Amino acid sequence: MNNTLLARSADALYWLARYVERAENLARILDVNDTFARDRTGGQNWLSIVQLNADREAFFARHPTADAARVIGFYVADTTNPTSIASAVRAARENARTLRPLISTEMWVQLNVFHNRLATVTAADLTPGRLSPLLAQVKEGCQTHTGITEGTFFRDEGWYFYQLGRYLERADQTTRLLDVKYHVLLPDQQDPGSAVDVSQWNALLRSAAGYHAYRRLHATGITPGQVAGFLLLNRRFPRSVYLCVREAELLLAELGARYGLRGGHRAAEQLDGLRGLLSGVTIEDVLIGGLHEFLDEVQRQLNRTAAALGIGFFGYPEQSESETSESAQ
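User: That's the sequence. What structure does it adopt?
Assistant: Structure tokens below.
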């Protein structure tokens, strides 16, 4: 990075992509949880969404229980919650505002309209019967942004930073989803393979937009190990952790090869180590050693990668390990 403006622009593009990806992911999880994810008593586990976003302290400081209405309100339209859909889209728009000379007019207009639509959401929009159409609009808005960006954004350094943000956010969200939901959905010893149990694993796959791709590989049934392996290690599914890490590694290499940007050595080392970790195991190895422990290490390395990118390209200061973990939330 040769000048401050370019560093700021690269940073804004990186976070623009992360925030849009985050909003879509959260809309998908809320929609699936509302529609499919029922526990064995017929209820829904809304607390798992609070856990997935590491928001227990913030949520329970304001709400006594994690029921449907409170969790949905907290994560859809609450602009005082930095992890809500409304906050993510607002942050994406603010980053886009600083990038007006670099991004296409179509990108800016669509994000602006999208943001303004979310600003009109009322409590009535979050009620049963109206929530799912609203979340469908959120997913469509995020996907429209991605499509417009693909079709109009100039392929220079900025494109690579945008894509880095998208893939790192996607990998992080997949690890969080798998870590929380896997343990929530582990089958009871007395009732494995029941219709309810299968529907829960279907819901997990749908939350990651992976149901149909998974069924192409495993047409005969669903098992916890196969689902975990698919989301973590599959090399062709766009939201698998392995594919996201590999794509990020290639993007970073291209930044160095095409544009001579040399600030990414530490991030490249982290990604290389992470890809080695993911390619050197089977899902059976992971489950024997502990899925949570494995995912925790993956998340730590993703956080270190993001911190290294910030230091190497965006002018961020050095951070301690604890500061790195906190800043990635």
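DSSP finds 16 helices and no strands in the chain.
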